[in-house]
Design goal:
Elements lengths: L2 H9 L9 H6 L1 H10 L3 E2 H5 L5 H10 L15 E7 L2 E8 L2 H10 L7 H10 L13 H11 L3 E6 L3 H15 L10
Antiparallel strand pairs: 1-4, 2-3, 2-4
Amino acid sequence: MNKSALIINHIRQSRKTERPFTEMVQQFPDILHELRQQQPMAWRDYFGPGKGRASTKKMLLAEGKAHWFKDDAADFRGLYVWYHEEHPFYVGISNNVLQRVGQHAKAKDHYSASMAYKIARDLWPTETKTRRADYDQENIAVVREWLKDQHLRMMPINDADQLALFEIYCALELGCALNVFEPH
């Protein structure tokens, strides 16, 4: 079989999901309700100075969240929601939620601290700087410090398809201003 035929056979395969679409989305209201029932976590308490993934995991285990960590993994796949007071403003997903949540307020580069860069760009736009890497680091540092005083709710969701769909559902249902689903 030639290479072109291999490609054609590959793309003609049916995409397989763990569960049907309708079954996944029917669960969304219940999952969101469960998320809302969680006690918000202060970022500083779980991710602040001197706290890495291991110490955050240890705290979560002490709170009875061992089921979040599949096969005793260091981190978990899932969703996180940032809150200011009780107002949700951003929903994110990651294969490594603990690492990702820490990066939002600790990282200094525009790839890892993308939310801080987005907030800075929205609040302090500049005509001369169009790339995220060129933004005023002072403003970004202010946003990162502000993020450290906010709260989170997190939830493991292992099914990658359900996780991707739930991020959009959750952001829309919660009215999160920072989530935009426009193509790049």
